[in-house]
Design goal:
The protein has about 80 residues and is of the alpha+beta class. It is built from 3 helices and 3 strands; from the N terminus they run E-H-H-E-E-H.
Length: about 80
């Protein structure tokens, strides 16, 4: 997320708001310290955005997921049976 000081934000407000409308929020800072985040009105609030486990119950991971393609990978990268180089 880009950070603009107050002067830059005032000077480029129309351009910055066009970017916000396209989904690119920005931060306004004063003396190098962030004081405001400008986002779309319909953007989710940061504290309500839930990411962890958002696909729970929608996908199935096979039991052997961590061993899938094991032989092929060993052949490509030289598994225990490969002669030392």
């Amino acid at each position: 997320m880009e950070v603009f000081n107050i002067h830059e934000a005032k000077t480029n407000l129309s351009r910055l708001l066009d970017a916000v409308q396209e989904g690119e929020p920005f931060i306004i800072s004063k003396a190098g310290k962030p004081i405001a985040r400008v986002t779309r009105l319909d953007a989710p609030r940061p504290e309500t955005a839930k990411r962890l486990g958002f696909l729970a119950g929608q996908i199935d991971v096979p039991e052997d997921f961590d061993r899938m393609g094991e032989a092929d990978i060993a052949a490509i990268f030289g598994g225990d049976d490969a002669p030392p180089t």
